[in-house]
Amino acid sequence: MTTVTDGARKPAPLPALRPLSEWPRLTSAIPRDAEVERRVAEILGQLTLQEKVGQMIQPELAELTCEDVREYRIGSALNGAGIWPGGKRHASVADWVETIDRFWTAAEEAWRDRPFRIPFMWATDAVHGHNNVHGATIFPHNIGLGAAGDPDLVRRIGEATAREVAATGMDWIFAPTVTTPRDRRWGRYYEGYSEDPAVVHAYGRAMVEGLQGDVTALRTDGKVLATLKHWIADGGTENGSDRGIARCSEDVLRNIHAQGFLAGIEAGAQCVMVSFSSWDNPANYDHTPGRAQPYNHKVHGSRYLITDVLKNALGFDGVVISDWDAHAEVAGCSPGDAGYAINAGLDVLMVAGREDWQSVYRTTIRQVRDGVVPMARIDDAVTRILRVKMRAGLWDKPRPRDRALTAPGTGIVGCAEHRALAREAARASLVLLKNTPGLLPLSRTARVLVTGSAADDLSKQCGGWTLSWQGDDVDRADLPDGTTLADAVRLVVGAERCVVDPALEHADPADFDVALVALGEDAYAEMRGTLKPWRSIGYADLKLSYARDLKVLRRLDAANLPVVSVLFTGRPLYCTEEINLSDAFVVAWLPGPYAQSLTDVLFAAEPGAPAHDFRGRLPSSWPRTRDSAAVNRIPPHLPDYRVPAEETAPEGRHTPLFEVGYGLSLRDEAPPTGPLPLDEPPEPPPAPAVDGPLRVLDAQGTPYRLRVGGHNTWSGKDVPLTGPMRSLIVHSDPVPAPSGAGRAPDGSAPGGGGTGLRLRFRGHPAFFYAESPTGEPADLRGHLEAGAHVRFLARVIEPPSSALFLACHDDYPAQPGVDLAPLLRQAPPEQWTVVSVPLAELDAAGMDLRHVDVPFMLYTEGTALLEIADVGWRVP
């Protein structure tokens, strides 16, 4: 009999929270220092207004030059996910150090003629390791760490991450995320540690301690500045909407959504990033009433939450930074005007686009001179910036290339010690939901069939924020030392006893002792990972490729082959039938690229090696139904807690299938093995009848809101029919539409006349779409039953350089599309032609025609120049 041990110490229970009736005054582990304050005041008194505003501007690498740093006295910069030195995806550590050193040197040159200097500061998104740098260690995403229940493990991960970030010459990271996620439809759900605020509280403290250390350690080369994000309640929005609206009470805000911030600030966090979301509450007042455009409750514009609460009530004296271009979403602001948000309390403005950050710079200076933005507000912001730079020891640190950890040959980034820690963390995060006695651990001599969509897929294991923003384009070249689950199984049992067949197209189940079925969500990050309010959270309901995993399980069940299922996911999903069809079911979350961590636990230990048991416990409630998206445990520290309107009480049909804290070990007596009750989907109503074509864009204009979104512009930018629109990703211009040009395949003449659009796709991920002005979906299945086509006129001026997709949603590539590039490349150049795609083809691709809020979308990551007109759904 195999003896199973934990292979590691058991973490101590987390401390209980106490209810808060008011905002507490916090004591930071990094207190005020009189000498620092004196030096800050001395420098501040010598700065010009222009120099002060330059310190407040933070552009990104692709939109900033060294000359800009010298001219504008820019105080900091960042590299966004998917932005690398010289555009090199596999830029080396030396490339990063050299790039950051050049900007640091430019800043030094900017102050050469002044009696003081202000060091430059570089920031990056390092949310599960130094994840934007090729070769860095990738740790499990936060939801998996939450399952581990071990703050000390998180502290050690923070220490390792800080060392790798510092080894590339960077000073500042945008982590940890201390949200308390409450709706599984949110695309950032996995960035939260748990729905339990006690876990978030403990982990927020631990990660800050790991990244920064104490007041002395923070000044050394091996530590970096931490950023608590996103202030506040980004995980509590209605319907899990990204950049949505939280409507909870201030008590819920304080006791549920603030807990990670409270602990992190006490631990000494020096930076807080503000949330894109809104808080709709009477306390969130308009600090400049009487304007033509009333305040829209965005947290970026909330003087109450930023200044009154965070800075004054809690006593936070560090830097408050905006999210990526988020000031532009505040009423009264724009991409080039951040005045209202600055007055709310923002200290550093993360403004990506070159024209935009330069406009913010000029506009802020003008607003100070005009009295719109008080000089005292600017002085407060710059005081905080200088204070944090001094606390980080930037005046004492040498240039980036001369720091202790950046020297060639140090080998810190991706070192064996850190990867062993990542493997330990992934092992600790595995949650065993079901087990059949005697099945696990598997024998090392078993004949193993590895199947399922995630069997051999590093992207599914790692999730978003892995080398690129969405992480959906990651391959083996990006993670050269990564191992998929299939790789790891081969290493254990040998290639001769392991067959990998993800779709179960070739293998015969009768040839094997056991099947390992790897289920997995495709990688996603914010926005593109968010599910619309009407979507099911059933795994097999989300994509056709996921439904094929369920079919594989059914085939294996019919073959009577023992099945161990492993689910890679960023959120709890309804998958009861998948559990029923499995003899053992493991939730692996997003463990990262080192799948040996899974086989360490799934298989018996090698002779003389420690065996490992399942230690993970659910950090979030597991849904019983397809619509239990916002069901959370009643917080035990709040005896009078009332479930907010945007959440669902955990009772009746919404009682969790598995509660927070559930998880089996191999020593546990298995619970009854009878099948779990299924939540059968209701029969859809009959398709509504249609009485004519669906207009999208024609001679009368459009009933929809025309927009573009994509790289740097995912929140959407309106496309007018009356004039040009320019953005980084798409240029649009109105053009006259032809009248009667071209003929449809059935011989009928198309429509025409009125206004069309010229669209230039500029080589970035981008989509043009027609959106319902109310945001509500329409049931358009009647058009399918009538045999309708999506039809439009197109004039191809420059054919697509890569795939160009048509869809009836704005979720590509999260949801499917039909590639029009081959058709458009064959069209007569610069002549109007008819493009007609049967709705049946879109339906077969997996599009949801019952819930259509975007009846027309074109998406490409390449270049193209085409004109479109007379867009609609028509029956031939």
From TrEMBL:
Residues 666-691, 734-755 are annotated as: Disordered. The keyword Cell cycle does not apply. Keywords: Hydrolase. Residues 430-665 form the Glycoside hydrolase family 3 C-terminal domain. Pfam families: Exop_C, Glyco_hydro_3, Glyco_hydro_3_C. Signal peptide: none annotated. Residues 672-688 have a biased composition (Pro residues). InterPro entries: Cellulose_Degrad_GH3, Exop_C, GH, Glyco_hydro_3_C, Glyco_hydro_3_C_sf, Glyco_hydro_3_N, Glyco_hydro_3_N_sf. Residues 48-388 form the Glycoside hydrolase family 3 N-terminal domain. Residues 738-748 have a biased composition (Low complexity). Residues 756-873 form the ExoP galactose-binding-like domain. The keyword Flavoprotein does not apply. This is Exo 1,3/1,4-beta-D-glucan glucohydrolase.
